[in-house]
Amino acid sequence: MIRKLMLAVAALVAAMSMAFAQVDVNKADAAALDSVKGVGPTTSKLILEERTKGGEFKDWADFSKRVKGVGDKRAAKLSQAGLQVAGKSFDGAGAAKPPAAAGKPAPAAKPAPAPAKM
To answer: Residue ranges per domain, the chain?
Structure first.
């Protein structure tokens, strides 16, 4: 019984370490790229073709420019899933959205209601 419990704990630890593994696009093969949530066979093929054709990716901007379908929004999601470019996560990953678009005023904050008198 203890043996089965220890085996289950070891399997859980191994699965968690794989879930949080960092994958660098400049070093990974197709299988490693496919293991990142959001990267499928088509995207991993595009990544490998671009890396072969143009050399290693310098940074996230270079990666987004060369790999079709990867913009800032998708780059942020891939980075959060563990993808790295040149050993670095996407700068905008997890960043808050900007307050308001340029030229548009920010919405006014509503005043808090006054406390009730007793």
So the answer is: 22-92
